[in-house]
Amino acid sequence: MSRLVISRLLLAVPVLFVVTMATFGLVFLVPGDPAATLAGESATPERIDELRTVLGLDRPVVEQYRDWLGGAVRGELGDSLFRNRPVAELIVERVPVTLALTGFAVLIAVLVAVPAGLVAGSRRGSLTDRAITLFTSLGVSLPSYFVALLLVIVFSLQLGWLPASGFRSWSSNPIEWARHLLLPGFALGLAMSAEIARQLRGAVVDVLDRDYVRTARAKGIRSRPVLLRHVLRNASLAPITVLGLQIAHLLGGAVVIEQVFAIPGLGTLAIDAVMQRDIPLMQGVVLVAVVIVTLTNIAVDVSYGLINPRGRVT
Amino acid sequence: MQRRAVAPALAVLLTISTTGTAALSTAALAHPATSNSNDGLDLDAVLRVGISRLNPPTWDPHKVGMDYTNFTTFPVYDRILDSDATGAVVPGLAESWEFDADGSTLTLHIRSGATFHDGSPVDAAAIKANLDRQLDGGADMLNAGQLSSIETVELVDDATVALHLTHPDASVPAALASRAGALVCPGQFDSPELTTEPCGAGPFRLVSHRDDDRTVYERFDEYWNREHVLLGGLEFIYVADETTRVNSFQADQFDVTFVNSTAIDTALRAGVAVDPQATLTFWQMNLNRTRPPLDNVDIRRAINHALDRELLVESLLFGQGLPAGQLFPPSYYAYDADLPDPYWAYDLDEARALVEASGVDSPTFTCQISGGSGGALVPYAEAVGAMLADVGITMEIETITQSTHFTDRNTDCEIGVFAGAIEPSLAFQQLFSADGFFNAGREASDEVTAAFQATLVPGDDRDAAIGAMVELALDQSLVVPLFFPYRTYLKSERVVGLDIFPVDTTTRFVDVGLAG
Question: Is residue B188 within 8 Å of residue B85, measured between CB atoms?
């Protein structure tokens, strides 16, 4: 197991290198000048040039990337051009917010998907199965921002139960923290729950035909224990793989959802960094996103072993 | 929570705002404003304000170049002078000011009794220290350019400062009413904490700030104009998306917020009361007047006559804008009511005649639009192109990620936004002078240069000089403004004192209160 984790971590190094280099290059292909933006509306060209020198933006791109990479290896991500603060500090502030949002989304997705997938799979062809299949089709098809606005209209504007935007920290008020994350978490988690439910339904249908399930039933074990102990465990590999893949999608989706709900997470930071061409900040966010996705994939691999004893051998 | 009909709510859903964040800049309820009756106000209430952008790169106002930061920094930092809702300069920490006879010295008379948040006095020495800090500073003093005509700052006595200028410059008072005139506690100039812990002489003190989330202020009880501060504090809540701001206002998460033209329509359809008003910001076709066929004044005039600005506003802005008939909106103090408005009537026959008279055969040019605005500019450019085609002018559209029209200056035209400048001479400098950033060709005729310089001379003739410069710019079609997009407050019935949306879009929270 530890060998698996170490090899995956080592594989992440070249991925990080390629991704950060590509991001850096893309930034410089886009026209525009952060120094001109920083200098303001009435700045003279001389003032902009001075600022460019101060910020080191007049140096060759390769040199700038080399310096950034050297700092990143030592754990120094530099300072944001537009926020006058260390990038690492900004990211540390934002990661918990985005993790809370995506955590809520995963929780909601699993809570919705597991019962839905089990019920649909075990009652194949029934009205319930068709209703759940319709729900999963809709869930996969509807864009998250559309779902978000629909939820806001119903639960914030019409019913007045939940806030339409914003974020509260856990430490300031746990109940408000949860209230502010419920709608964005649901909007973000809906597509994921639909995808997991579809996978789980398919796997359940497949497992139900297996000999060991028939044997269990023949032994007189009641339907629910069979489903929960034998079927769910064996059917869960495919949904867990999907869950792992969906984490990367969740991070992308969080960018949109954070914008719609005005949540100060990593996504909002990423959008600002891109719009302002805040290069150190953009690099920092990309780095963290790659690390999160890599760690998630490792966690998924490890979970295979935990669920399936055969997986522990390899 | 009041229940609302489904139809307007769906209208909110269907009108998903495509506009970017509102560019916030300044402006003003003047400090020595008309006195409000305080009866029924909760003087310790905290006003919750939904805003589109926070995050000043630093809380040191001298090191910030972007106008939108004024909204968050001005509650903390009073300026030497101030401006009112029409953009006119009014007293601030200096209670009066005057130019000498030849306009080369500006004398400021500082009011007594004002203090900084750290308890030090706001006196002539503090004003000189703040100005010298910028004039002697390096590249990070981003507003020093607005003070470039100041040669020396003389401390006359404890309450008087004389600014000796290199040349007459009537725009200096407006500069002193903006970030360049913001007063920082002199004892904090070199403190690294100033980046995150502002120290000024404004009506509020910063309590906390979290990027992209919220900024909280408390009232400064030793403020010089304390009786006009009608709130216990402010809470600015960051919501970039305009539709989300409308929704959050409806969900009672803010007492007040503001939205731009496209979201005004969203708010209207959702049943929210609005009071749309024009600001100094206008959309324009910016022409490089050195490149043919735009170097031909008849072609430029033909363009102005060929544009049906009312149709643009009605069809593309849901009617939420003012067709630009002049350079400034009527709510601005420098607006010239004696000039025709619209200066260029929509007249296709006149436009065709001008094209004919220009002697240019099949006039053709290319106009850039920046894709950075999320494609919002495309329909405007296409509509303008179709209108010009009607009079025989071909405008090709080039969409690029970020416009190079003002930086590389190798393109004919750009359709985009001019954020406006609070001082008319500064707007003229940016748009028309040979070194103006928004003068893409960097050329200015002797006549334009002379007219611009005349506007810099303080005195009784200045208003006439401003009027003459505007008329010259319109006559020569140096500018092709399209419309002034509206902005509006959305405010609860409890909010008092926010009756006029300031032309420079920055609210001052003095004489603003919440009913109890």
Answer: no
Rounded Cα–Cα distance for residues B467 and B299 (Å): 24
Which pair of tokens denotes residue A200?
């789980």
B271–chain A Cβ distance below 8 A for any pair = no
How many whole angstroms separate alpha carbon A185 and alpha carbon A178?
Answer: 10
H or E element at residue B81: strand B81-83
Contacts of A56 in chain B (CB under 8 A): none
Query: CA B454, B456, B460, B465 torsion: positive or negative?
Result: positive
Residue in B336, B245, B191, B8 with CA at minimum distance from that of residue A165: B245
Angle in degrees, 0-180, between the axes of helices A174-208 and A127-141, rounded to the nearest 10: 120
The alpha carbon of B145 is separated from its chain's Cα centroid by a whole number of angstroms, namely 17
* Angle ∠(B512,B88,B276) on CA atoms, nearest 5: 55
- The CA distances from residue B254 to B48, B51, B69, B251, in Å, are 5, 10, 20, 8
Asked if B238 has any chain A CB less than 8 Å from its own CB, the reply is yes
Q: A101 at the B interface (CB within 8 A)?
A: no
Tokens describing residue A129 = 């199965």
Q: What is the pLDDT of residues A209-266, one digit of tens each?
A: 888 878 887 887 777 777 777 788 778 777 888 887 787 788 888 999 998 999 999 9
User: The pTM is what?
Assistant: 0.81
CB pairs under 8 A between A and B: 148
